[in-house]
Each structure stands twice: as C-alpha cells, then as structure tokens.
Amino acid sequence: MHLEIRNDGERALWMVGVVDGSEGGLRFPRYMPTVKLGGRVVAAPPPPEDPLVGPLRAADFRRLVPGESFDPTRPSHGSAYLPLSTFANFIPSKKGVYRCEVQFSTESDSPERWLGRFNQEDERASVLGLIDKVPRVTVTAALEVVVG
Prior knowledge:
Shape: globular
Strand content: 25-35%
Mean pLDDT: 96
Low-confidence stretches: none
Order of helices and strands: EEEEEEHEHE
C-alpha cells in the first residue's frame, strides 16, 4: 500500500511524515490506520505501551510546493519516517472487501504535543517554529481491497 500527501493548494506548506509515536496517537502529527471487514475493525494500532517517543527534528519537516507530494512512510531528506505497522503487518484472514483507512491529523491543542519526550532540547526552538507553519487539518483517506 502506498500513502501520499499532496499539496493541492496555491502556496507552499509544511508537513511531517509518520514519526515515532504518530501511529499510536502519542504525538502529533497523528496517523491512525485501521482495516475494516464488513464495517468491523480487524486491524488497528495497539494501545501504546511506552509513552517515550524520540525527538521531532527539523529534518522530519517536509516543505511541499503546490503540486508536490511525498510518501510520509518513506524516509527521505534525512527524515526518520516510519512505515504504518498496522498496514505493513496485516494479513487478511478470509475473503472479502477490506477497507483500509488512515486518519491524518495535525490539529493539536498545543505545539508541545508534537515534541519528543527525550533528546528534544537541541532542536526545540527551530522545531516549534516549524510546527507553527504546518496547517491544522484532519483528513481521512480510504482504499478498498478485494481479497478473493
């Protein structure tokens, strides 16, 4: 499965891919994947076990000009992006139409909810400045996969 974030606007914008803690909802940006069969969730991120997430770094921010896109699960330009393990590890158990969804959210109530729990001080000021440049959105993308 391929995930893409695209800037369809008229101005450049900043985004962050999937970083440590994003998939489990421990930090922003949040990438919340689910797989459903017949409307029932059959795969989702497990409850977070460890609230310690690594630092968010300036290299994890991606500037997108109008028309540009990137895969938020593929490291590039020095980023520490991670795959969505819910999708990467899912194996269908029976035939049917599986609906794969991911909700992406940058709508935090505080910029500190983006930061790591350790080793964040070196880039804290620059990262907080970049967080302010990320548009606040929540969007859901979906794909149906037929397993026959």
